[in-house]
Amino acid sequence: MTDLYQAQRAMRNMRRAAMQRGVIAILDIGTSKIACLILRFDGVDSFGDDTVGPMAGQSSFRVIGAATTRSRGVRFGEIAVMAETERAVRTAVQAAQKMANVRVDHVIACFSGAEPRSYGLAGEIDLEDSVVTEQDVARVLSACDMPDIGQDREVLHAQPVNFALDHRSGLGDPRGQIGNRLATDMHLLSIDGNVVQNILHCIQRCDLELAGMASSAYVSGISALVEDEQELGAACIEMGGGSTGISVFMKKHMIFADAVRMGGDHVTSDISKGLMVPMAVAERIKTKHGGVQATGMDDREMIEVGGDSGDWEKDRRQVSRAELIGIMRPRVEEILEEVRARLDAAGFDSLPSQQIVLTGGASQIPGLDGLASRILGQRVRLGRPLRVQGLPQAATGAAFSSTVGLCLFAAHPQDEWWDFEIPAERYPARSLKRVVKWFKDNW
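The line above is the sequence of Cell division protein FtsA; the predicted structure tokens follow.
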């Protein structure tokens, strides 16, 4: 635990140094594509508006290089074949560097999968002086009871989501305010440590330094949710190729994250098996003709399956669109049912606003928003990433939500546990609290 704390702190310092030098690379390691963007920073201001710690620097940036390549060696958002993934990462980074005409040494990476688990932590202290200082914030964060996250698991995000000073709760930044007792609620996200080690090793093999890591469910939420959704409570469902990430935001902080090990590639696989065609043909059919809502016309709309088996009759086969929808819909329903189970377990129905935003490449299946609103029982909209200066048109779709979110995460980092000088003797190791407990107490 102490090792990871130091590693995260070192990464934050590395990120700041890279930003001051002017360029940093963004790497989105997905199951279906690997995207690399190169950012140029114009300057870092000393403090942001609504963030707490020393890392809270706002900075303006523009994208000067962008490249994507087909992902290889990645399954369920986790590296399965190291050499293949290394080659794909090298391809994407080199193409982006060529476009930007600059060399980068530091990358910030995001990934899905890794079995994320959320914990809600609470801690409180008596103030030595009546005015809250940064050291008091560090002490109250270290006073949180650390849950037993399990063997071989590591903490990816540890963010204070709420502060309370005496009877006043819902404070974003308590420093400089006067009171006697300071309390905090913290959201902690743990992941499988081996997945992180594999990503770290892969990036080092590409002669790059890792300057930060994030969960793609978290960064997708940053880019796809508008400000009032992040404030009032909303869930971002990032439907990727190999896994579907879930993140719940409240008061501009992530308070829950999870992942379902199914995504768009599983729909493609079902088409491939159902129609007995190669995966590449199944992907083309899904993209051009796919859907989940059947109409009366679909029985008459015939799709040319195509193929190159050499058997003329087999290669000229046709299927109706209704048959294709019949193959796709059960798998999409299964993914959404699993998402609903995870949201129910997190207590999502207790939030005041229950907006759900679908993003990621697989969210572009026609009719998905209507099916999702019926299964999830909430208002559902399709999300697109926020516009980022210099981003090429090809990278503005829903499939690039996590990539754009990672740019915003790099430029406007939220405070985390490692941004404060926490006393060394206060590495906590005890209990577990409910994720949305702090929310229920404060509303």
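Note on the example: The first helix runs from residue 2 to 21. The domain at 264-326 is CATH 3.30.420.40 (Nucleotidyltransferase; domain 5).
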